[in-house]
Design a protein that fits this description.
By secondary structure, the chain is mainly beta. It has one helix and ten strands. The strands form two sheets. The chain has a five-stranded antiparallel sheet with strand order 1-7-4-9-2, with no helix packed on it. Strands 6-5-8-3-10 form a five-stranded antiparallel sheet. The protein binds dTDP-4-keto-6-deoxyglucose.
């Protein structure tokens, strides 16, 4: 298994009425949760992301639908499909990410370790490569 791709399984807590998943800081999520956001209504053919973070760690999962995510640590690249509400992907800092192939019903839920701060983003790929190779 790749060092880049770190899956987190969320135990389904459902019963005869249906399914339920709980996410908790320092339990299923390996950090203190400071922010949650979700991406939906993504247009066909769109690619999002195309940046890395210096501090932020995230766990992302598709609550419904699916999308692809390319991970790149500057040395190797891996592409995976997110298509399960019980399987999250852990993104460490200094990992370039590109999300694509969103299904029309995709709701991508992202759980983050820090508040929003544009200064935490590396949005230039050449800068990212230089930074990780220092
Ligand atoms: C990431 C991937 C997976 C905010 O104001 N607060 C927020 O918490 C976020 C995440 C975004 N924004 C604003 C900033 C932009 O004006 O929402 C707009 C869209 O953000 P962005 O273009 O960065 O969206 P994506 O989908 O390219 O990237 C997002 C996250 O920003 C990023 O941290 O890892 O999803």
């Amino acid at each position: 298994m790749s060092e880049l791709v770190k899956w987190i399984d969320f135990p389904p807590l459902g019963d005869h009425r249906g399914s339920l998943v709980a996410v908790e800081s320092h339990q299923t999520i390996p950090f203190e949760i400071k922010r949650v956001y979700y991406i939906f209504n993504t247009l066909e053919g769109v690619t999002r992301g195309m940046h890395a973070h210096m501090a932020v760690k995230q766990v992302m999962l598709c609550v419904t639908g699916s999308c692809r995510i390319l991970l790149d640590d500057g040395f190797s690249k891996e592409s995976v499909t997110l298509d399960s509400p019980t399987k999250g992907l852990l993104l460490e800092s200094f990992v370039w990410r590109e999300m694509s192939e969103f299904s029309p019903d995709c709701v991508l839920l992202v759980i983050a370790s820090e508040h929003y701060d544009e200064d935490d983003y590396i949005r230039d790929y050449d800068n990212f490569k230089k930074t990780v190779k220092l």
